[in-house]
Amino acid sequence: MIGATALGIALVVTAMPELGMLAVGAIAAALVAGAFGGDAVVQVVSFVVVSTALIAVVRPIANRHRSQRPQHATGIDALKGKQAVVLERVDASGGRIKLAGEVWSARALDHGSTYEAGQEVDVVDIEGATAIVM
């Protein structure tokens, strides 16, 4: 149980989920010792088996979930592809648009393009606090 506690503290400090799986293995070894009176060899074997099984099963599932993109875009990713209304003329040097209810500085993606007030434009990208439109 002391080992499980030490691994649990290390898990909280480092945020490495593998340490949590090792802590569960240490708890299994403590249960074997307490419930069945297992000697040191049985405790070590139970620790290794449980820890290895958890790492082999849980880690690939966690990696698969970590690599998936969230289904709901948030922040500036949610603004890309949205339509906006030009408030002040937008060209390659700048302008203003109304995007998602807020006023944004904007510039045209194409250097030769200009958009007049009242036109609808599509937001292609966000660079800092400036929307790139076309």
UniProtKB/TrEMBL annotation:
Entry keyword annotation includes Methyltransferase: no
Membrane topology: Multi-pass membrane protein
GO cellular component term of the entry, any: plasma membrane
Keyword Transmembrane helix among record annotations: yes
Listed InterPro entries: Membrane_assoc_protease, NA-bd_OB-fold, NfeD-like_C
Record's keyword terms, sorted: Membrane, Transmembrane, Transmembrane helix
Transmembrane residue ranges: 40-62
Protein name, per record: Integral membrane protein
Domain NfeD-like C-terminal, residue spans: 77-133
Subcellular location: Membrane
